[in-house]
Specification:
single chain, 276 residues, mainly alpha, MetI-like fold, 78% helix
Length: 276
């Protein structure tokens, strides 16, 4: 038994080590190439830098106008997280606690909207927003993101509310609390790991989203960081050192945030799989 357990542990750790290398290799390659001249990247992207080009980061910051575009991404992502977590938690609470006769239809709708590609709605949305004068409006784009990401958030948050014993609500109601007070003061603190998990996932989706952002935010002062990064690539030539440095600038905030909140995120994902 001891030998079998050791062999199992060795297999598990070996598999984890291989997966770790596969996961970190692109990141390491990006860091390495962000410090190289473009010519050396083209010759051998795996080689160690002959000279460290720290100016790649300053050039990327200026060329992509990251001072403006990163702020646009932060505002758009924050607004989307706020809208999705607010509407999603309210909807998920109702779906978890109320008996709905058409629950199968609601489930089908949530699954369908989660899997439906945004390209199906892109042209009608664009012409409608253009008629309303909402092109280049970050708030309008945040509402589109909310509509796209809310079904996933609702389905995930509903599992957290289902895991909360009903006795807690009944005790609060007996003590004289209103339904809104029960939701705000009892339920929300308990399901806060789930809300944090949804916020991190939706934030990552919104930060990296390209198609909707490039369609509805066309003005130079409204571009997001991902769109400005895409514009760094030239039609006939590209400075790959600057491009990889720009990729580092975009990825770094997400990596730092995840590292700081990884324990809460893992706890939230594990808690959401307890009951569905």
């Amino acid at each position: 038994m001891i030998r079998e357990s050791r062999a199992t542990l060795w297999i598990v750790y070996s598999a984890l080590a291989i997966l770790l290398v596969i996961t970190l290799f692109p990141m390491a390659l990006m860091v390495l190439n962000s410090l190289k001249p473009s010519e050396q990247i083209v010759q051998n992207p795996l080689a160690w830098p002959e000279t460290f080009r720290w100016d790649n980061f300053t050039r990327a910051w200026d060329d992509a106008r990251f001072g403006t575009t990163l702020w646009n991404s932060v505002v758009l992502t924050s607004l989307t997280i706020l809208l999705v977590c607010t509407t999603g938690s309210l909807t998920a609470y109702v779906l978890a606690r109320r008996k709905i006769k058409t629950w199968k239809l609601v489930t089908f709708y949530l699954l369908a909207t989660t899997t439906a590609p945004i390209q199906l709605f892109l042209f009608p949305l664009y012409f409608g927003f253009a008629r309303l004068g909402l092109i280049n409006n970050p708030v309008a784009v945040a509402f589109i993101y909310t509509a796209v990401y809310s079904p996933f958030a609702i389905m995930l948050l509903r599992t957290y509310f289902l895991a909360v014993p009903k006795e807690l609500e009944e005790a609060a109601l007996i003590d004289g609390a209103t339904s809104w007070q029960v939701f705000r003061r009892v339920m929300l603190p308990i399901v806060s790991p789930g809300i944090l998990t949804v916020a991190l996932i939706i934030g990552l989706y919104s930060w990296n989203e390209f198609l909707i952002a490039t369609t509805f935010l066309q003005s130079q002062d409204r571009l997001t960081a991902v769109v400005s990064f895409f514009l760094l690539s030239g039609q006939y030539s590209s400075d790959w050192g600057v491009i990889t440095a720009a990729a580092m600038i975009i990825v770094l905030p997400v990596v730092i945030l995840f590292v700081l909140l990884q324990r809460r995120f893992i706890e939230g994902m594990a808690g959401g799989s307890v009951k569905g």
